[in-house]
């Protein structure tokens, strides 16, 4: 009878990497498929309204919100403070100041 896998064994199998990679790949695929329609229908609008603003917020916040997650999962470093380095990098691209 096989024993249960330990936490170290699961980490060595990279079991969390693959579902994250699949989800991000599907997100990018969907973005690429709908980009032409977005340009035709949304970029030609002269005035930003509530619906268009919510569309942009939903589309791009979702896309760029995955960047820190992808950095955390796939960026290999020997630095033990990996999360602090990722937060520092992400803060460079935003105007959010750490408290």
TrEMBL record:
<keyword id="KW-0472">Membrane</keyword>
<feature type="transmembrane region" description="Helical">
    <location>
        <begin position="17"/>
        <end position="36"/>
    </location>
</feature>
<feature type="transmembrane region" description="Helical">
    <location>
        <begin position="48"/>
        <end position="71"/>
    </location>
</feature>
<feature type="domain" description="DUF6533">
    <location>
        <begin position="20"/>
        <end position="64"/>
    </location>
</feature>
<keyword id="KW-0812">Transmembrane</keyword>
<dbReference type="Pfam" id="PF20151">
    <property type="entry name" value="DUF6533"/>
</dbReference>
<protein>
    <recommendedName>
        <fullName>DUF6533 domain-containing protein</fullName>
    </recommendedName>
</protein>
<dbReference type="InterPro" id="IPR045340">
    <property type="entry name" value="DUF6533"/>
</dbReference>
<keyword id="KW-1133">Transmembrane helix</keyword>
